[in-house]
Amino acid sequence: MQEPLISTADFGPLPDGQTAQLFTLRNGRGLEARITNYGGTLTHLLAPDKDGQPGDVVLGFDAVGGYLSETYRQAGPYFGALIGRYGNRIKQGRFRLDGHDYTLATNNGPNHLHGGLRGFDKVLWQAEVLVEPTPALRLTYISPDGEEGYPGTLTVSVVYALTPDNALRISYAATTDRATVLNLTNHAYFNLSAGAQPDVLGHELQLHAERYTVVDDTLIPTGELRLVQGTPFDFTRSHAIGARIGQVPGGYDHNWVLAGGEHFRLVATAHEPGSGRTLEVRTDQPGVQFYSGNFLDGSLTGKNGRPYGRHAGFCLETQHFPDSPNQPAFPSTVLRPGELFSSATEYRFGVQR
Ligand code: GLA
Q1: Catalytic residue among 44, 114, 187, 203
Q2: Which residues, 6+ apart, have CB-to-CB distance to 32 below 8 Å?
Q3: How many domains are there within the chain?
Q4: What's the pLDDT score for residue 131?
Q5: Which residue's CA is the closest to the ligand 1 atom numbered 10?
Q6: What is the pLDDT of residues 102-147, one digit of tens each?
Q7: Against a cut of 0.85, is the pTM above it?
Q8: For residue 185, with 0-12 CB atoms within 10 Å meaning exposed, 13-18 middle and 19 or more buried, which class applies?
Q9: Ligand 1 mean position to 77 CA, how many Å?
Q10: What is the average pLDDT across 48-55?
Q11: Is residue 1, in this structure, part of any structural domain at all?
Q12: Pocket of ligand 1 contains residue 218 by CB under 6 Å
């Protein structure tokens, strides 16, 4: 019997007595995604290798407890979670908008990171299963005015859908009742070897970006958009992630300025030679945070008892640039009443022999 395209299961209890749900989506062509409404988190993503064997290509846990543990919260890797209201950092947790000063939590050294103490990764989203035209899950969250210090009631909806050509498509929409800032993304960690390799240093990566945003020692952009040419940040041609990582203190954790403005276009391709799996990333966002899992240190054990050591996965967080609310020259992250924010990112899986 063919497996259903969508199924639902309990994912475990939450501290407030509610139960998290786990939704499994299948496209009938080998791609399977599991998503929990806790944090809108992508927990599993199964894609075929060059022999047609499915393997789980993202880091995460088998039950919601993994995402709630104190060790996990302290480590803060945000495995597979939806990130909001603001993906990445805002300098010193402050910004000014329309003459008002706003103060946010400083939860990452001196800066604000990934929406604050209780960002969108830590809230329970309302979930709705969609079947047509493709198996999909719509998650909705209404963030109250003032939540985590941000102005405006923000209504956010995120649709995870599997396409017939083996892509996971994530579509974001948001409206507000007061002027605010937002930068929504997903924080999946990929390991295309499906765990056969303990780290991603052998993955080859191409990024369609000629510049990156230079950061200070707290990872806040200085404002400079520097050419990648002649630096270890040059992925305009495919390079192994590990080939030059030693020349980047701390490893890759930077925002690349994507070519092609804000059109939906191919921005990144990764390939893992052992499994043959490829990943193509398409987005309409102006930037991508390529993060090489530098802070993973083996203290977290994920699905199948796998310890997640340094560089166990890599992230391609499609986004606006970090600290845009304080950088007038960066593409704007302001959303005003009456406007609809909408954006899409696709992660498409294939094989290359
Ligand atoms: C982003 C940041 C990193 C790190 C991870 C989560 O990629 O840029 O510095 O905080 O999220 O661990």
Answers
A1: 187
A2: 24, 25, 26, 44, 45, 46, 54
A3: 1
A4: 85
A5: 77
A6: 999 999 999 999 999 999 999 999 999 998 788 999 999 999 999 9
A7: yes
A8: buried
A9: 7
A10: 98
A11: no
A12: no
